[in-house]
Amino acid sequence: MRRHGLRSDRGGTLPLYIWLTGIILFVSLAFFAFAQAASARNGAQSAADAAALAAAQDARDELVEGLGTAIEAGEGDDWLNWLAGDMFTGESAEAAADALAAENDAHVSGFSGAEVNGYPGFDVEVTTDYTVGDSILPGTESQHAKADATAVIKPRCELAESSDPEQAVGFTCDGDEAPIEIDPDDFELGDLPDASTLFSVHLAD
Questions:
Q1: Where are the domains of the chain?
Q2: Tens of pLDDT along 78-105?
Q3: Is the overall model pTM greater than 0.90, yes or no?
């Protein structure tokens, strides 16, 4: 009778063991599936951030070039509009965004101008070229991750108090105590400070 009881206990334990093993395996696979999805989302967000920054940096380069051209032209105070960050067209910004997205295995699926706290910028949405991958969750093998980001361009300089915009180019920038003075009659584009000194580019919060 005792031996029969031991066999019964062992027989009842085996199905429970198999059942628990199956539950643990399922939970592990589900966790792996969610980790796959999170990894794809993180990759998409990195691509979106890089693409938005690339668009804003391209526009910043346009602003610096336009500022230099306006100074060379010597047409009154038109250069102040460029210094304020109001004049870029952003014609090549989307191409710059797509190039950076492609470097991150993604492509731009949405692109538009934006304004954050009065500063201009770009909204960029990207879609990954890769999928989440096979998992126990149905449909992930064909699901692409998406993410969006906004980057803004913030002017860092303004007309120096002692300057006459009709006569000379003088402006002060964040972090610089002494004004930057440029003679329009003896000027080359390389005389301007670095683009990052004139305009900051950053992701919107």
A1: 2-203
A2: 788 888 887 889 999 999 999 999 999 9
A3: no
